[in-house]
Amino acid sequence: MSKTKPIGVNFEELESQCLPHLSVDCVVFGFHDNQLKVLLLKSKFIDEWSLPGGFVGKTETVEEAATRVLKERTGLGEIFLNQFHIFSDPKRSNPGLKPENMKKAGVKLTNYEWLGQRFLSVGFYALVEFSKVDPQPDVFSQTCEWKGIDEVETLMMDHRQILDKALETMRLQLRYQPIGYNLLPEKYTMPELQKLYETILGRELDRRNFQRKILSYKILKRLPERRLGVAHKAPYLYRFDLEKYNQALLDGLSGDW
Amino acid sequence: MSKTKPIGVNFEELESQCLPHLSVDCVVFGFHDNQLKVLLLKSKFIDEWSLPGGFVGKTETVEEAATRVLKERTGLGEIFLNQFHIFSDPKRSNPGLKPENMKKAGVKLTNYEWLGQRFLSVGFYALVEFSKVDPQPDVFSQTCEWKGIDEVETLMMDHRQILDKALETMRLQLRYQPIGYNLLPEKYTMPELQKLYETILGRELDRRNFQRKILSYKILKRLPERRLGVAHKAPYLYRFDLEKYNQALLDGLSGDW
DNA sequence: TCAAAAGTGTTCTAACTACACCCATGG
DNA sequence: CCATGGGTGTAGTTAGAACACTTTTGA
């Protein structure tokens, strides 16, 4: 007799196709309403939020696994993605996948053991354009939503630690690489870009110095258009000069923030 | 009948105690004769060099695995160690552990399959004091030696890529963290420290500017002693002020190189 | 006494900081 | 017509680059 699959997944297949003990977790950053947001999932089985994650196929790289997970959760391909750490505490395991919690939720499986095993997880962080994301929960989750970075409370397992490390890594990266292209819409104003930087860095920057510094990198182009409909002088719109932007990604920037 | 163990390892035990598919590889840097060195192993089974590596125990973190490997290869505990990347190309596998190569070398085992499986490897880099290391080959290797970073030719599998990535990561780290404490003996002269920086960065630095910049961090103490026995003015000896050094590790430095 | 390499100081420039003034826009 | 916030400019400060002279040492 065929196995019950109340949550829409063939776990026997999963087990046969994925590496044991290894998963990926993604910290997906977006920027909206002058706030840094992160994509989170709420478990079907326990009352906790977690990062989007998944298993690694037997013939996949971890990057491919993360890309696949992100495609599923956001609908986006071609995502800016960076591996930043592997979390390997032997005690880390997903309580949302623990036999007792899944049974409590009425899930029937024969191979709880595989899901309940020890997992080491490779942390990735992704930068995406908020408005392009269509958040989709996975089979273990009831919802998938953006949360403001400051509103995030406790997360499942060590996911809070993973989130913090991702933030720290992104802040460091900001020192020597331009980011923003992946987080902002095609056109944006200088104050918007500044807000993004301030949000990531967690401190205010001088408006004029910021503008001068950013422009000195020569990675963005001012457009003749302006942002209209504001009760003050209309700011110019800019967009990244992709060629120079990518060159700067390779060469690195010089400044400190 | 008990299994033949011509290379001194019980592989059944290894398999039962280690995670499948996962290994660690360490890029161990040392500094000697004004040269950056890296610790390499020469395989018993094929004519290739590789990085020190090992498997991950079922209840170990990857950090613990790397620490264990380094203890075995160098004799040192308390090593400065940094995880920097996970290498997960599904095609990567160790030719020195491939059945045909081990059989050719006369090794008799029943579970070649385990050794020949796909491995994902977590890359670590370590900074050690050259003179304190007592290089010890592992069971798969005939020798363990220091090689000048510029003399390293081809390495086994993707180890060359791992080495390059380690170097790149260390150079980046040099931008915002002091290193040197782990690579130099307790007392050293300013020109020696400068040579180390020049070697890591791969370019020459101005003697006077270097001294001023390093001293401005206030992480080292000038000793009343000088290095004698040189046919020129005797340079002062310095040592790191551990308290301030560690604080700087946490806070980060400001300068660019 | 000389070559080699260390100690120390100055000048110039570029980058960052901290401000001030004017301008456009919607309410 | 005014509050809000954007566009631009300038002076002061600090960090880095380039460079010169003096000192100590063993051979």
From TrEMBL, chains A, B:
Show the CDD domains listed in the entry. Answer: NUDIX_NadM_like (cd18873)
> Which InterPro entries does the entry mention?
NUDIX_hydrolase-like_dom_sf, NUDIX_hydrolase_dom, WH-like_DNA-bd_sf, WH_DNA-bd_sf, WHD_NrtR
Q: Domain of life here?
A: Bacteria
PROSITE patterns with a match to the protein in the record: NUDIX (PS51462)
Residues in Nudix hydrolase domain copies: 19-169
Q: By what name is this protein known?
A: NUDIX domain-containing protein
